[in-house]
Amino acid sequence: MYNKLNLITITGLGLRFGDKKLFEDVNLKFTPGNCYGVIGANGAGKSTFLKILSGEIDSDEGNVSITPGERLAVLKQDHFEFDEFTVLDTVIMGHKRLYEIIKEKETLYQKEDFSEEDGVKASKLEEEFAELDGWDAEVNAEKLLMGLGIPKDVHYKSMKEIKSNQKVKVLLAQSLFGDPGILLLDEPTNHLDFKAINWLQDFLLDYEKIVIIVSHDRYFLNKVCTHMVDIDYGKAKLYVGNYDFWYESSQLALKLMKEQNKKKEEKVKELQNFIARFSSNASKAKQATSRKKLLDKITIDDIKPSSRQYPFVGFNPEREAGKDILTVDEISKDIDGVNVLNDISFTVNKGDKIIILGRNDVAKTTLFKILMGEIEADKGDYKWGVTTKRDYLPKDNSKYFHDVDLNLVDWLRQFSKEKSETFIRGFLGKMLFSKQEPLKKASVLSGGEKVRCMFSKLMLSKANVLLLDEPTNHLDLESIQSVNNGLIAFKGTMLFTSHDHKFIQTIANRVIEITPKGIIDYQGTFDEFLENEDLQNKIDKMYE
After folding, report:
1. Which of 97, 428, 506, 517 would be a feasible disulfide site paired with 433, CB 3.0-4.6 Å?
2. Beta strands 353-357 and 493-497: pairing type?
3. DSSP 334
4. Shared domain check, 394 and 360
5. Which of residues 302, 336, 352 is at a domain's end?
6. Rounded to an integer, what is the distance from CA 488 to the centroid of its chain?
7. Where would I find the beta strands (DSSP E) of 301-460?
8. What would the pLDDT profile of 236-276 be if each residue is shown by its tens digit?
9. Which residues on neighbouring strands pair with residue 390, listed in sequence order?
10. Is 33 or 522 the better-scoring residue by pLDDT?
11. Does one domain contain both 53 and 129?
12. Within this chain, do residues 66 and 88 fall inside the same structural domain, yes or no?
């Protein structure tokens, strides 16, 4: 087992940006064998917190103490930093000292006038090289790359020669390389495919050192995290358990706080039942045992309501659709001379909630644009049922906001039958635009605010069929949770794309994967689809 020393101790940490206080008097300990998810509303300082731990920025007060000699690794965000290096070298550079030794050795052994002094130096370097497991460096780097889905023929290419989604994986492999004592990962699942995410989950579950993660991927946080660090009220508080435990315990705390007349014994009983349910659902046996012991020690006073607000997302179709929803017949389309849709045919049934998958995001977006009449197919046809009323959330919503000189009230009024300001403001209030916010210009909104506005538009349409292209992009965890809940409850029919595992698993009842050689159409849940090995092998062959 790994040495159970407290490797990171944070004492009295505080940071301000101008007049804004991010956090103050933060006191935490991070210990090996645990994975900590850092959560908080957008702007709370999650990524900044990681940068303080890594030493990239200084705090205003307090200090971060790391056990001497422990190596800390950070997931790099600059995808062009290593363009001149090979993929394999980029991974090995994750262990800075080992890479320095490799280069020093190369320089020494290339000298024509190799002296006795050089021999002594080389001997010392070889000793340190062996201690750092240098002889297996390439093999270990290759294992990481292969695990993340980077084939061997790519390993000796330069970083500038490979695709952007491969660069993401190489930089992740770099951070994992060489068994660092502390791993800091900011959004590690961004742009990863589901196979790579599953591999990373297994890697981290077996990792016995300290892992600290910022992520919007709830499924990932639930799988790997033993604790959550919640940045809220300008503080950072440590909770035992994964994201779902934190979320539901904060909701329970809010409920118990409102039930002032409830007896203490009843509240304790409710808490015990809640903890028992989560203890039995722990994902891994080795985590479950230690986590259950910690959960059993939690008291009523330990769980706190969150200050975070959740928007309301709910859809009420104007009318129920009939049986005929959509028929797609042999649709093909080329974009910029490249075939993205090849004889795509399927029928959508009433009540279907279909996740559209595919390794080519352009293909999925193109299909949605064709079905919504924005572009025409090169070949084939589609037909909507006469009782369907459709609405669409595009991945790129810029046309709705670009050069729009309207405030939010007037912007949303365009899409509403009811024109009164009170009604429109009420709708915006559900999406957390309150007080003076509805009077700001639509053109200056952040990415997340624009998506929340688009959901207001969708709700007003009262459509019974929704097409949603990456609906959680730009949203914070609170908004993702609300959208997720709203779409689970939606009684109509849906086609959607997403890279959010939990979102897909809790909503979809059918999976369609678009490949270069046609589609795979699977009736069932997303997890069942992923766990069907024969089907996954068949899909892999359709991409070859």
Report:
1. 428
2. parallel
3. E
4. yes
5. 302
6. 20
7. 324-335, 338-349, 353-357, 379-384, 390-393
8. 999 988 999 999 999 988 888 888 778 888 888 888 888 88
9. 465
10. 522
11. no
12. no
298 and 330, same domain (yes or no): no
Q: How far apart are CA 215 and CA 7, in angstroms?
A: 22
**Domain presence at residue 441:** no
Condensed to tens digits (0 to 9), the pLDDT of residues 80-90 reads: 999 999 999 99
d(CA 447, CA 459): 19
Go through the chain and tell me how many residues it has: 544
Separation of alpha carbons 107 and 137, rounded Å: 18
What single-letter amino acid sits at 80? F
Does residue 227 sit within a domain?
A: yes
Give me the DSSP letters along 116-174: HHHHHHHHHHHHHHHHTTGGGHHHHHHHHHHHTT--GGGTTSBGGGS-HHHHHHHHHHH
CA pair distance 282, 288, nearest whole angstrom: 5
Residue type present at position 402: H
Chain CA centroid to CA 446, Å: 19
Sequence-distant (6+) residues with CB within 8 A of 390 are: 372, 384, 463, 465, 466, 467
For residue range 273-286, what is the model confidence (pLDDT) as tens digits?
A: 888 877 766 555 45
Report the sign of the C-alpha dihedral through residues 46, 186, 238, 309, in that order. Answer: positive
CB-based contact 394:375 (threshold 8 Å): no
Quick one: tokens of 452? 């929340």
Which pLDDT score, from 0 to 100, does residue 258 have?
85
d(CA 26, CA 210): 19
373-432 pLDDT, tens digit per residue, is 999 999 999 999 999 999 999 999 999 998 889 999 999 999 999 999 999 999 899 999
Number of domains within the chain: 3
Q: Which residue range is the domain that position 292 belongs to? A: 8-70+216-302
**Entry pTM:** 0.89
Is residue 51 within 8 Å of 214, Cβ to Cβ?
Answer: no
The answer on 366 and 395 residing in a single domain is: yes
d(CA 350, CA 165): 36
Q: 52 and 110 share a domain? A: no
3-state DSSP call for residue 91? helix
What share of the chain in percent tops pLDDT 90? 77
Shared domain check, 154 and 52: no
